[in-house]
Design goal:
alpha+beta, Rossmann fold, six-stranded mixed beta sheet, 18 helices, elongated
Length: 609
């Protein structure tokens, strides 16, 4: 498939010959609506294509009337270059100025200034019009662009204009990203149903591909693709595309929605950088605004991340847009901010964080710092803003954070966030040791609470392992402790410890239950001391029999091994005689021997392992 050619759109004041110029270039009249033909102005967006000097060029014709700026923005959002049409008769007019500002704000970086109706003025007036428009575009993306006088009626200057258009290049668009098409027009075709058209902003699409219809989050499927009226099975970023989809509910496919290959961010709040138009009006913190992004729009309010008030023409500010209805956007998207009443274009903006949380007055200073870093390309900010929720794989891909941050299980966190969680968990472990100085550690799930209780279990376990790997903690069976923690017994505790051990050992192979121990040694610390002896291997718990001393069990093992020097197997009856125990104690002791790896059960008897 050949690379897409440029998408070139018109811009300029109403009645400055935009549609007539496209007709002269392509042979097609894009004022197809009855009302357009009756009033002699463009109301809806017009689309066509033509071969210009061997280059396939897509054309978008936009309305110039001040009441139709929203439609103009929808068309300009898909342009690679602009033909700024200025009547040689009237010169620069209000919408000429506004359209230049809009194109600049939307990131259009190339174009041609076309002085239309050149046949209606003499040489002197033509030069005055040229000087007028050159003054307007000075310092803008059109500074130094070709200025060509033409007549759509006589054809004068059209050859020079065609040659200049052939030199325009398409904008570099991301073919490797997710497919994304903001819908700028929907029409019906008999036998096909509704068809949407727009400029493919990124990615590619094929027949039968599943797509998302945003912001409604409907799933649809591609039934047909057309580029410049030609049926294709594959379309890529930078092309004007008509797409027939199946599965959309009635009314869901409309101008302003986005067709995408993945569920892109759809939000009521996003952070951005705003730049006021040089020849516009001021904008104040908290003002009600209309946000035009791609082919969609929403009402909302603007909240500055700094104390600057108001935002005056030609200056910039970091801000948060809070919308009444959601918009689909990603970082880097450009948009226009307009005053709803009286309508006027105030500023252009660039989306920095479509996942932003509501900015509070007390956090404005922090937000300002973060947004400056984001604008400079520091994607770590998006990890930091995810805070202790972290990001899963789909979030990581959407935010393009790459290998930044630290992975815990299936979540990725900013290093600063992980450091905060580690510190919190270490403090909790220290508090546990202070509260229970005779315990060798806390069970993991005892620590999975309070300041780290919100972490998914796998993430919490990974956090514990990270402390172990860093040499700050130790895992001993089910227990976790700080690496430098040791149990220190005072004289009273040491005496109680010795008494506890002596009581267990005195029970021999009869064992002793915890309740009996508590009755003999009625001290709450006795239980902790018993578990310390267990951790040291001096005592063992055997089933429901209670506690046994290591010496008694060692003696039993010696007897069992001695038995197998003369016998091949050991059954319960023989074991009762060997150990001197009743069946009540014999069976649990045999099971302990099995669990300890001394014997292995075979049917009703045991073999030596």
């Amino acid at each position: 498939m050949s690379a897409p050619g440029p998408i070139v759109g018109t811009a300029g004041h109403v009645d400055h010959g935009k549609t007539a110029l496209i007709t002269a270039l392509t042979g097609q009249n894009l004022d197809a609506l009855v009302e357009e033909q009756a009033r002699g102005i463009t109301i809806a967006l017009g689309f066509t294509s033509a071969n210009i000097e061997g280059t396939s060029v897509s054309f978008i014709d936009v309305p110039g009337h001040e009441s139709l700026v929203r439609t103009m923005v929808a068309g300009a959002a898909g342009m690679d270059a602009v033909l700024l049409c200025v009547s040689a008769v009237d010169g620069v007019m209000p919408q000429t100025i506004e359209h230049v500002g809009i194109c600049e704000s939307l990131g259009i970086r190339s174009g041609i200034v076309v002085l239309t109706m050149a046949d209606q003025v003499d040489e002197e007036l033509l030069e005055l019009a040229e000087a007028d428009v050159e003054d307007l575009v000075s310092g803008t993306f059109l500074d130094g662009a070709p200025v060509i006088g033409v007549s759509s009626l006589t054809g004068a200057g059209m050859a020079a204009l065609r040659a200049a258009i052939a030199q325009l290049s398409p904008t570099s668009r991301k073919i490797e990203g997710p497919f994304r098409l903001p819908v700028d027009r929907v029409f019906s075709r008999s036998g096909f149903g509704d068809i949407a058209s727009g400029t493919v902003w990124s990615g590619d699409v094929r027949l039968d591909s599943p797509l998302w219809l945003l912001p409604d989050a409907e799933r649809v499927r591609v039934r047909g693709l057309h580029v410049h009226g030609v049926e294709v099975d594959h379309a890529v970023a930078g092309q004007r595309l008509a797409i027939n989809v199946a599965g959309a509910t009635k009314g869901a496919l409309r101008r302003g929605v986005t067709l995408a290959s993945s569920p892109l961010p759809t939000t009521h709040i996003f952070d951005a950088k705003l730049s006021a138009l040089p020849r516009g009006e001021s904008l104040s913190d908290g003002d009600s605004v209309r946000v035009l992004l791609g082919t969609s729009e929403a009402m909302g309010r603007v909240n500055f991340a700094s104390e600057r008030d108001p935002l005056v023409p030609g200056t910039s500010v970091y801000a948060q847009l809070r919308l009444d209805t959601p918009l689909t956007c990603v970082p880097g998207d450009r948009f226009i901010v307009r005053r709803p009443s009286p309508e006027s274009t105030l500023a252009g903006g660039v989306v920095l964080d479509p996942w932003a949380k509501r900015m509070r007055t007390k956090n404005k200073k922090q937000a300002l710092t973060e947004l400056k870093r984001l604008e400079q390309g520091d994607r770590t900010v998006l990890l930091e803003r995810a805070e202790e929720d972290g990001l899963i794989d789909v979030d990581v891909q959407q935010r393009s954070v790459g290998d930044l941050g630290i992975i815990l299980a299936d979540h990725r966190f900013a290093a600063s966030i992980v450091g905060r969680l580690e510190g919190r968990l270490l403090d909790m472990m220290a508090e546990f040791h202070n509260a229970q100085p005779l315990s060798l550690g806390a069970k993991r799930r005892e620590l999975h609470r309070d300041g780290v209780g919100h972490l998914p279990p796998r993430v919490f376990d990974a956090l514990v392992e990270r402390l172990v790997d860093a040499g700050l903690a130790v895992i001993a069976g089910p227990l976790v402790r700080l690496i430098h923690f040791k149990v220190h017994l005072d004289d009273v505790q040491e005496k109680l410890s010795q008494k506890t051990l002596a009581a267990v050992e005195a029970a021999g192979l009869d064992g002793i239950k915890l309740a009996d121990l508590m009755e003999r040694l009625p001290n709450p610390e006795m239980v902790s001391l018993l578990h310390l002896h267990s951790a040291a291997g001096r005592v063992h718990r055997v089933g429901d029999l209670g506690w046994f001393g290591q010496n008694a069990l060692d003696g039993l093992v010696v007897k069992v091994r001695g038995w197998f020097s003369d016998n091949d197997s050991l059954d319960a009856q023989a074991f009762k005689q060997l150990s001197g125990q009743s069946r009540r104690t014999a069976i649990p002791l045999l099971e302990w021997l099995d669990a300890s790896g001394i014997t292995a059960r075979q049917g009703d008897s045991r073999k030596l392992r």
